[in-house]
Amino acid sequence: MINAMSLLVMCLVFTSMFTNTLSLTKEQENDRIIALPGQPKVAFSQFSGYITVNKKHGRALFYWLTEAATLNPLLKPLVLWLNGGPGCSSIAYGASEEIGPFRINKNASSLSLNIYSWNKEANILFLESPAGVGFSYTNTSSNLKDSGDKRTASDALRFLIRWMARFPQYKYREFYMAGESYAGHYVPQLAEKIHNYNKNHHNPVINLKGFVAGNAVTDFKYDNIGTVEYWWTHSIISDTTYKSIMNSCNFTSRKYDEKCDNALYYARDHEFGEIDEYNIYTPSCNKFSRNRNHKSRRLKNTLVRRRASGYDPCVEKRAEKYYNRPEVLHAMHANYTGIPYKWTACSIEILENWKDSQFSMLPTYKKLMSAGYRIWVFSGDTDSNVPVTATRLSLSHLNLTVKTQWYPWYVNGQVGGWTEVYDGLTFATVRGAGHEVPLFQPERGFLLFESFLTGRNLPGA
Fold it and tell me: What is the dotted CATH code of the domain comprising 220-314?
């Protein structure tokens, strides 16, 4: 006998089979991607396009939705992915190197499947944010020089509300957010915006359940101290330079300090060598001339032209070729306004003119934990830019109660990393992963994401 719940599930499955073929609105049909150039055949639907978030200034954010690769995508949650920088593209990194369904082949004109794509478990919405990043644009040129945390969060909330008006089938769906690096600001700040919005509306459409952040910029003081500790403990810098940095840098202030900057400059230019700071044990891209002007961008402010490593240390260059191809622009409904510059993975102009940056995300974490959201933080342990030592030091100042003590978690009989579960937050490391965890350790990253969605602890021995 079929019970009521089984009947409901069957109805939803049946509905989902026809939603993308028979029930598209005109706006959705306009955004539907029939197929990307060089793309292998897939069974899931894709959409991309623009949502205007500020009509007066002409700000519009570009998105790419890859629906869940299952028979019943309507039964799967919606996950928003954000990359950081600030100023870097979620399509360049999240979609094309990390969690998206496709990888750009070496010829930069065709795609292959990512067997560990996160859309096996969820509908993934990639957002290029703020305006001026990737295909997202503004008609007010001064916006490229006055972006900051507050406006980015406000525009992202407005994007979600208007995007769900265009795709009402996602209203009230379980909604999660994920991101890395400077998205350690974007994700919890947007979560707080959504939380406040939902409190002030009788029938909120954004059913936020939680978020997960990787190698996340968290607290200016503790992140910086933890980063220098990582450099020293991993033999990247000398004892002398370590002491010089720690003695001359006041990490409670963002004011320019010549002694501090000189010490950091010496470390990077004379002791680092030509390594990939985002994964210190993999080859660096030998076609890249490292930007040595660090004086105006201390530590966390250097997160701009990060180099991807892993199987191809120059993989980022593929994206910059592929997403500038006219046939790709046409297929993705991108740049139809004629943006007067090429698509790039990161906008240096936005990074170097960032106006406001929250000193510490810890108060925001406390607020969101008290509201009961599911919060996970993870760290690839070979990243020297936002390293595991920085994140652990920052989180330690939340003074959380331990629920499950530190233990190794496993994938296929191998240690995938280590984790500790607290009252209100789960922290996990990913062994052998750099700044972009799903790029360097895709299987481990996928299991972590799957565990996060289900709310289960990572598997022990």
Answer: 3.40.50.1820
